[in-house]
Amino acid sequence: MNSEPTPSFPSRLPNVGTTIFTVMSALATQHQAVNLGQGFPDFDCDAHLVDAVDAAMRAGHNQYPPMTGVPALREAIASKIEALYGRRYGAADEITVTAGATQAILTAILCCVGPGDEVIVLEPCYDSYVPNIELAGGTVVRVPLVPGTFRPDLDRIGAAITPRTRALIINTPHNPSGTVWSEADMLRLQELLAPTNVLLISDEVYEHMVYTPLRHESAARYPGLAARAFIVSSFGKTYHVTGWKIGYVAAPAALTAEFRKVHQFNVFTVNTPMQHGLAAYMHNPAPYLELPAFYAAKRDLFRQGLANTRFQVLPCEGTYFQCVGISDLAVSERDLPEAEFCQWLTREVGVAAIPLSAFYGDGFDQKIVRFCFAKKDETLRAALQRLARL
After folding, report:
1. Residue 122: per-residue pLDDT
2. Considering the domain 20-39+289-387, what is its CATH architecture?
3. C or N: which end of the chain has fewer Cβ atoms within 10 Å?
4. Nearest 5 degrees, angle CA 357-CA 383-CA 31?
5. What is the layout of strands, in order, in the sheet containing 368-372?
6. Please, are residues 136 and 87 in contact by the beta-carbon 8 Å criterion?
7. How far apart are CA 211 and CA 305, in angstroms?
8. CA atoms within 13 A on the CB side of 178
9. For residues 15 and 26, what is the distance between their CA atoms, to the nearest angstrom?
């Protein structure tokens, strides 16, 4: 063993520890619990997609691709956005393929945020946003979504904008609440940002999981938002391949140029055969067009089962997450903080969930936890059978 002391240095992220997702997944494994905590499917992707990637490998697509992404894939992305949202992005200079959406968000922040810049985040929010801003040297400005409904409070968002505001991050459909922004929300946001230079980072990774009668209101639909937006999406979420870590960013050419300056040095390129496979697979739009019905069936199965428990089942307009209130459970359980309740639920009931307090900087506890229903029907039924004890 080396006895020499290891040099110390100030942590760039002194407040960051092991994520709640890692903690709960490890606890689920330890207690052989049904893991409805971390947001990934337990079923396979379409075999035709795997075949397309295999064919790309066998065709020799195994060396570095262009830094910005395989041209055929960028063309397919541009065509999809135009067909769905009515805005045509230039495949050459406005679409960039990324190593997942998390990298895309970090790169978007690093390319435009510096010391002294403020970035507004809407809580509860995905756990990478705040550390990304801190790594860039920016200042986090937290604005809560309306407690209980998780709708955006546009008045509070407007009040938070200052001359130092560089960017605003929005997420619709929203993780963790499953709330979907409306056309009225987006129009009001467009109005608020119009007289400013504030950039928009629009996290739309669950864009294809919006349930009837709603539709996904992409920032691409709104000219005043699209002109200032980095729009982020994820093939992992759309095609059930979260482990592939491939996503993309659509942004105006001037923003994309700055984005790519950072992208080329923190990732440079993204897995070549998977890009070619995805480009071929995207010729058929049915897999993403049919996704809302696919997940709505799972949502409905899960919600019907939860109706037989004492959980308060909150609305789920999009994503593959279902939030529930725990205030009506037995006294001993409902008095636990959300994080302790989730640990108790994993150990004693055998189902893992995520506390909503983990998505707030101050640990705001509303007695609400989040389940993921992107699971096989038999997995959901097994979890519901255990939850019926509550």
Report:
1. 98
2. Alpha-Beta Complex (3.90)
3. N
4. 75
5. 312-313, 321-325, 368-372, 354-355
6. no
7. 19
8. 25
9. 21
